[in-house]
Amino acid sequence: MKKSRFTTEQMIAILGEGQAGATVTELCRRHGISEQTYYRWKAKYGGMEISEARRLKDLKDENARLKRLVADLSLDNQALKAVVSKKF
Length: 88
Description:
single chain, Homeodomain-like_sf, Transposase, Transposase_8, Transposase_8_domain
């Protein structure tokens, strides 16, 4: 997936400008984004504060780390079961 030019904090700041009264067309022109991008960000981050977005990112990172850990432990468990089940 292509990395965004904007950080989550920047996206939320742009959405905040829109809530403050700026028109969507003007915001998109000023920041060099399409209206579709603006509305996609609004659906994902609408009403979110910057601190909440950071917390969400931290939780996603932690979740990915835990999923990798569970996958590794599952593989180890299967390997041990295969060794124990073999008859010598």
